[in-house]
Each structure stands twice: as structure tokens, then as C-alpha cells.
Amino acid sequence: MSFAFQTPVAALNEHQNRIKMLSENIANINTPGFKGNRMTFVETLGSVSGVKQFEFSQGDIKSTGKVTDLAIQGESFFVLNNGEKNMYSRAGSFDVNEQGELVNVDGLNVQGWMQDISEPNPTLSNNLRDIVIDPNLSIPAEATENAWLSGNLNSALDTTTEVWQTEEALTENENMFESTAITSGSPLSVDNSLEITDSNDSFQVSFNGAVAETVTITNDSYDSLDDLVDELNTQFNSNVNLSGKIKAYNSNETLQIRNVADEDNTTMELIPGENTAGDNDALAALGISEGTSTFKFAGEDTDLNSLLQVTEDLQAGDTIVISGSDSEGNSISTEYTYSAGDTVGALLTEINNAYDGSSTADLEDGQIILTDDEAGDSSTTLSLAAASGNTGSISMPLFNNTEEGSTATVNSSIEVYDSIGESHTIGLKIEKSDIDGEWNWKSEVPDGSPEGMKITTGSSGKITFDKNGNLRSFSYDGNADSLTITPGNGAQNMEIKLHAGSTEGATGLTQYNSVSSVQMKDQDGLASGKIEGFNFEKDGSIIASFTNGENAKIGQLATAKFANPGGLEKAGGSNFIPTQDSGLASIGKADSQESEIKSESLETSTVDLADQFTKLIEAQNSYQAAAKVINTFEEVATQASQLKR
User: Fold this and answer.
1) Of 83-92, 177-186, 187-196, 513-522, which gets the smallest average pLDDT?
2) Which string of DSSP letters, residue by residue, matches 304-343?
3) Tell me, which fold does domain 181-294 have in CATH?
4) Rounded distance, CA 243 to CA 625, Å?
5) DSSP string computed for 335-364
């Protein structure tokens, strides 16, 4: 009879175990990576036993946004280690602990291979080890070895010459040398021989065709030309229509009558006066022929004192200060000293002496034009000013830079890195030569660079283009093939090759008729950088990002695959260990095991709640049936015992 109880009791126990298993499934419906259990009943030697199996089907992938949350799409497992042995899990809820170790919720270390990025050619470690994300990890610097240029050099650029000249500015005639309307007589030898009498004592003056004004000279014998000049000016000033407009001068013992009003386009006409007493030959007596004179642009032979700019005659010893700078930026500071009878040409000569070898001054249409002797970049300036202590008074013209001197130059720069990761700027100056399609380039160390920084070889060269504007050659002077730079900060010397040709996806240097713009499109140097983040690739690669903008692979997650994952044994939490039924773990990368790592995601539980409740009801009914069988056996046994007595 006792044997009859064994089968239902065994069934009762197994159904109880099934209920526990189903309860565990239901409890873990929200556990990431949880794999549901199932129980299959088998008959063994007339008894009943339940065989528990794990259902390793693929769970849904749910995005979490957390970079250390990982899910596996495929049949692989994460490899974990408890310090003694490896375990395996589908639950990828990981974190980085204080030591930088990647661990799961149970504190087990995630396994993989690490890569030392400080090595010249980093490779993954040979053996599995803990994945560690070092918060102080840095990527080493790399010295620049190549720099690639791109852009255009304008084929229409020309080298120009610096020009400074006087121009009309604030008021009329202010910046242009103009002489007055002037009439000069023939040289007079007065010496008590010039007599003015009633028969030749007057002449007439008119301006711009207006009514003539009569000038009457006092009858007298004049001992000198100065006495005669004084007499004429007395008469001019006594006439309200002539005062301030006309003046007599002794110009090297030659009588001059000038229009002194500061007016453009003034004409002055001198004619004999109307005198019934005689022939009225005053003009002839003064050595002046009748006729019309007008203002005009000054020439080099124009008397300085006949300029409209002169309001009080210059006297011997008066000075004009010449200042500025030559084309190289050297200071110009000298003086012109006036001598009686000096012309504009004398001032021009002094200016040319001051700028000798740099610029040349000419006079055109009343304008002083200072032109550099050589075309190209220039620092030339010019200023004239009358000295404050002069007796005479002259208003000096202003000068404007009417054409800027420049070389057909394109300036650019490249930024490179030395062996310790310090960046350096190298200037590039590219000048168009006299040969079509040819440019000369030169590299320079700019101001502010480390003391001792210098370019030792390969600092200059040529760039040539064909007739279509395409690059023909980029070469270095002195048979060099690269720039050799001493950084001046203790780092190793840099050897940098400049490349000007086109590369895949980018155009190099061209020479078209368009705006010049040359820049460095790329270089292969690298500053050091500290880790600022990381992510996981589909194959399990761990890619770190650094503060210098670089990314580098620092490790690789390991995954494991089993011939029969259903034969794995639960080892606490969501972790498993292999058994004889599961077979040994095959360790490798996810992509080699037809799996894929999903970052910022978790695999959900494979438990189907409705299915589990259905199975729970089935298990409960089976449990009750087994219990009923046992009760029946107890009743039969009781009745049999009573019959025996």
C-alpha cells in the first residue's frame, strides 16, 4: 500500500515546484533579460518527476537612454566574473563603479578585452579581463606630419605702386598749387632814371571783363624798384575796387603785378590809361606790355610767392617742414629753407632729396605727386607744414593716399601640433611673381610664438599653375621636401609636408579669376585629450570620446554562445553557469556570433503574463487532483485497516 502513495505524493511535490516556478516567472515579468522557466513532467520508474528548463527566446528591446544599458539581439550572453569564475547573463543593466569597472546589478565585473591607446599601434589584450573605463584616461598627442591646403589664388591680382598726392579737399585750391593771374615786366634799371610824368602816369586794370579801374602813378623820379612797388601798392590800395585784389612785387628786380585774391579762374587785363595830355605810356615805362593774364596751375618754374596759397610773401630763411615715412617705414624729417626767388621746383627738389631711393615727387596740374620707385607693399607717407616762426605765410596742401601700394599677396596660416600636443600657428605668405602662373610662397613664425621657435629648412618655395588654373607643382626651395620646425618649447623638431593637390572629396589650390582664399583643410596632428564620454558599437567595441575632439577604441565587450543554452544552470539573479547539458562557452565578439549589441537599451523579460496565469491555474488543478488521489488512498487504507480488525 505504501508503494501506491509514492506516485501521487511525487506528483504533488512536482506540481508544487511548478507553482513556485510559475510564481517566480510572474514576479520577474519586469526584470530585464529574465528568461522564463518551464517544467515538463516525465515518468521515471513508475513515478513522476518535473524537468525544469529555461526558455531562451529573444525578448523585446526597450530604449532607456542610459549608455551603460546594453541589450543583445541574438543568442549570445554577456560574460561576467565574480572574482573566481565566469558567469553568463542576458541582463545588460550595467553601471560604472567608483573604480571605473563596468559591473552588473550584482556587482559582477563585465568581461572583455582592453586596448592601451598610449601605444603607437594599440591592439586588444590577449586574455579576458575586467572592462574598466578609467575616468582619468587621456589620449596622447601626435605631432603633425602632413598638412593639406585648399583654396584659390586670384589670377587677376596685380602688384600696385603707392601714390600720395595733393587733392582738392576742404576749400577750393587748398590742396593744389596754383599761381595768380600775373603780369611780369622786363627787368628795370631804375637808378634815378625812371621818371613818371603827366604824359605817362596812368594805366587801367580790369578783372574778368569788368569795368576797368584807372591807376594813376604819382609824378616823380623813382630811385629804386622798391620805391616804385611801394607807389603802385599805395595806388592799388586807395582804389576800393582794387584793394586786396592786386599787388605789385619786386621779383628779382623785375616788376610783377599779381592778382592776389584767392579766386579761381580770375583773368586780369592791363591796358594803357585814358590821358588827353599825352601818349600815356605808363605800362611801357614800367616795362610791362598790355594784355590779359589768368590764373594757372603752378609749374616747377613758378615763383613760390606767386602761389595763391601765399598770403604773405615768404622771406629768405623761412622754412617748410617735410615729414613722413619712406616705403620701408623709416622716418622722414627734414626742412626746406626758402631763398629769395625760389620756385616750386626748389621745394620739389628738397622732397626728392628726402625720399631718395624710395619715392619720387613730380608736379602735375598743380599737384605734387609722390610715387614709390618700386611697386609693392609700402609704408610711405608725406606731410608738408610751414614752420610756425616764418615771416611769410603759406598754406601747405594736404596729401592723400590715392593708390595703396601692395604686392599681389595672399596671406594664410596653418595650425599644427608638436610631439607634446602644443599647437603652433605657421604663417603662409604667397606672392604672385612676374611669370604667368607662378607664385612664391614663404612660411613665417608669427609674433607671440615660443621663444626659440624657428623654421630651419623648407621655409619657402614655388607654386605653378597651368593655363587652365590647375595646379602644376608645389615645390620647396633648397632641395627640401618639407618644413623643418624647431618648436622652441622642448618638444621634438617637426617635419611637416605641405600638400596642395586635390584629394578625395576636396580640391587643392587653384588659380582662377575669383576671390583669393587659402586655408588648411586638414592636418594629421593631435593635441592630447582627456576622456569625456564613451559609447558601445554594435560589435561591442567601446569607443571613448576625448576633449580634443578625437575618438578612440579603448576596449571590446566579450560575448559567449552555448550549443544548448537551455541546459544552463541558474547561479543567482539573472546569472547562469554552464553545465554538461549546455556545453562549454564559446567566447568571442558579438558580430562573430551573429549577435548585435544595442546600446542605451535593455532586453525585456520573455515572460507572458496571461500565459503564466493560465499555466498557474493548470498547475493548481493538477496539485488539487494529486491531493485528491492521496486522500482517496488514505480513505481506502483506513477502511482496509478497520476490516482487518
Assistant:
1) 187-196
2) GGGBTTEEE---TT-EEEEEEE-TT--EEEEEEE--TT-B
3) Immunoglobulin-like (2.60.40)
4) 146
5) EEE--TT-BHHHHHHHHHHHTTTTEEEEEE
pLDDT band with cut points at 50, 70 and 90 for residue 170? very low
Cα four-point dihedral sign 502, 506, 508, 514: positive
| φ and ψ of 528, to 5 deg | -70, 155
User: What would the DSSP string read from start to end of 88-111?
Assistant: EES--B-EE-TTSBEE-TT-PEEE
570: its cell numbers? 541558474
pLDDT at 539: 95
- Same fold for the pair 146-157+408-523 and 181-294: no
What is the share, in percent, of the chain residues with pLDDT greater than 70?
Answer: 82
What are the residue boundaries of the structural domains of the chain, listed by start?
2-57+607-641, 61-135+554-598, 146-157+408-523, 163-168+312-403, 181-294
Confidence of residue 468 (pLDDT cuts 50, 70, 90): very high
Size (the chain), residues: 645
Between CA 136 and CA 411 the distance in angstroms is 40
Find out whether 415 and 427 touch, Cβ atoms under 8 Å.
no
Neighbours of 6 (CB within 10 A): 13
Cβ atoms 568, 583 nearer than 8 A: no
Of 536, 552, 437, 619, whose CA–CA distance to 112 is shortest? 536
Looking at residue 172, its pLDDT comes to: 46
Answer CATH for 146-157+408-523 from 3.40.109.10, 3.40.640.10, 1.10.287.70, 2.60.98.20 = 2.60.98.20
pLDDT at 563: 93
For residues 454 and 427, what is the distance between their CA atoms, to the nearest angstrom? Answer: 12
pLDDT digits (tens, 9 = 90+) for 355-406: 998 999 999 878 899 999 988 889 999 999 999 999 999 888 888 998 998 8
Residue 169 has pLDDT above 50, yes or no: no
What backbone phi and psi angles, to 5 degrees, belong to 313? -50, 135
CATH class of 163-168+312-403: mainly beta
Question: Number of C-alpha atoms within 13 angstroms, CB side, residue 441?
Answer: 25
Question: Quick one: pLDDT at residue 12?
Answer: 62
Between residues 347 and 33, the one the model is more confident about? 347
Percent of the chain clearing pLDDT 90 (strictly above) = 50
Q: Side chain identity at 543, as an amino acid letter?
A: I
Pairwise CA distance, residues 509 & 91, whole Å? 55
